[in-house]
Design goal:
mainly alpha; Transferase(Phosphotransferase), domain 1; two-stranded antiparallel ribbon; 7 helices; 2% strand
């Protein structure tokens, strides 16, 4: 029995037994010409073993196997299959688009050398497989990609908790240790923007309003009060009497 996938909106399209992992919509990868090379590998697998790599009966199980389970090599299913042909088919059935054949020309070159046999020499899978144009990688490049994803998840959770506390009137203090990458800095900026948009200002510690009091006078400042001037009692100065002339 062949299970067909319909094409309506976000539903997957194609024959499920030959569907590339990225076509299931569960891997988060973009679909390009390399999905057709995966389907070609599933077709060669059926020609070599008599059945598709993951069967054709249960749609849920087939979808899971396309995403998570590696197929049994054709040479193990059918000992009559050449080891080089088994390697070519397994290279076509790689889960990651970046790990499988990139072009049909690369597949044709390896199949032609396999057809020519010993005269052409050993088959090196993917030796002449060069993409026609540069394609962006399907995953983050670098050994710390998983660490960065984990840090982003922790920072996002911490930001959500702090925003909830801000909504309840609690002002948390966030401490960062070590160097922060551009992604974490961008998250911090977005969190600050969200806080400003909800509260109208950045959170700060509440300060008690300044109390007004009379200015204190420094010790060196002179007393501004005008002292009273006390008048001492004036003494009357005796006026010498003029001698009176005796008349007559």
């Amino acid at each position: 029995m062949t299970t067909w996938a319909r094409c309506h909106g976000s539903e997957i399209v194609g024959t499920l037994a030959y569907l590339a992992p990225e076509q299931t919509g569960r891997s988060g990868r973009s679909v390009d010409q390399r999905a057709d090379l995966y389907a070609f590998g599933a077709t060669l697998y059926e020609l070599a073993t008599g059945a598709p790599p993951f069967g054709s009966d249960d749609p849920l199980r087939i979808t899971h196997d396309h995403l998570a389970r590696a197929a049994v090599p054709p040479a193990e299913e059918n000992p009559a299959v050449l080891g080089a042909l088994s390697e070519i088919i397994m290279h076509l059935l790689e889960k990651e688009p970046d790990s499988r054949y990139q072009t049909a020309d690369g597949v044709a070159y390896d199949l032609e050398r396999l057809r020519d046999g010993a005269a052409a020499g050993p088959v090196h899978v993917g030796k002449r497989d060069f993409p026609h144009r540069l394609l962006p990688p399907s995953r983050l490049v670098g050994s710390t990609a998983d660490e960065l994803s984990a840090r982003l998840a922790v920072e996002a959770t911490r930001a959500i908790v702090e925003l909830r506390e801000l909504a309840r009137g609690i002002h948390p203090v966030a401490l960062a240790k070590g160097g922060l990458g551009p992604a974490v800095k961008g998250l911090a900026r977005r969190s600050a923007t969200a806080v400003r948009g909800s509260t109208g200002a950045c959170p700060s510690r509440s300060r008690s309003p300044p109390t007004t009091s009379s200015p204190r006078r420094s010790p060196t400042q002179p007393n501004m009060r005008t002292p009273r001037l006390s008048r001492s009692p004036s003494r009357s100065t005796p006026v010498p009497r003029r001698p009176s002339c005796a008349s007559g």
